[in-house]
Amino acid sequence: xxxxxxxxxxxxxxxxxxxxxxxxxxxxxxxxxxxxxxxxxxxxxxxxxxxxxxxxxxxxxxxxxxxxxxxxxxxxxxxxxxxxxxxxxxxxxxxxxxxxxxxxxxxxxxxxxxxxxxxxxxxxxxxxxxxxxxxxxxxxxxxxxxxxxxxxxxxxxxxxxxxxxxxxxxxxxxxxxxxxxxxxxxxxxxx
Length: 191
Hints:
By secondary structure, the chain is α/β, with parallel strands linked by helices.
């Protein structure tokens, strides 16, 4: 209840608090009406699929949140899909951190990149995208004019797809605004 009515709190980090799906539901309920919060960190909280559905419903209506981190919540494809799908309706979120969630299918992620109008920074590092993911992401980036940073650090299957990376490089060269990068042995490399 305190978060629902609070207009002065702009950054909330609940990182590693093991809030689970019920805690995610409570935060999501508050987010639906909160008009002040700009950054929310829910990293490593075991929110699961149920919690991600709650958060995604809040993202569809929240008009103040600019950044959310839901990394390390073991969402997999099923739990990540609702959050990424919510980007279609959210016109304010600029940054999404969704690393280390066991995401393998890049198709729904690409669909969001294709339609989102506000997202500028997307970190999907440390996920297990299949090798065709590079092709799907490259196609989505072709039409996206807002995204300026895509982090694919340690997405090994994606990075090992040579043809997909070449396609991604060609798209990035055509869209000078977006920077795609990954960390390799401690060095940041740009595509």
